Amino acid sequence: MASVVLLFFLNVSITTSPKQYGCFKEAVAKYGIPKKVRTDQGMENLDIARYMLDNGYGMITGKSVHNQRVERMWRDVYEGVLSYFHDFFFYMEEESILDHLDERHIYALHFVFLSNINHKLDTWNEAWANHRLRTVHSTP
User: Sorted alphabetically, which InterPro entries does this protein's record hold (predicted)?
Assistant: First the structure.
């Protein structure tokens, strides 16, 4: 059976290489080194790619739209976690409570909700990591 583990979610206002790499190293300490890693082609993933290749493991880069499992996973993340926050924030905009163009509002949103969103994503990730994968004709 194929095995896919979502190593981490990084939900921050600015994604940087040190943040990505730090989360990756925490995941490696928890799960071990994966045989291969799939990321987009962002420069923030360079340290992860270097680590994987220097240690003789695989690195796949590209858009997730070419990977049905990844696309399905993102749909599940949205439905299981993010839709609640999306709908709530949209409601706040409709009621003129939130102005997404105002940096102070965005800062306040991050301050109030970011840790809760991260907690919900971590909880979802733990549950997702324990589900069985369906494969085509039972092949990896």
Answer: Integrase_dom_put (IPR058913), RNaseH-like_sf (IPR012337), RNaseH_sf (IPR036397)
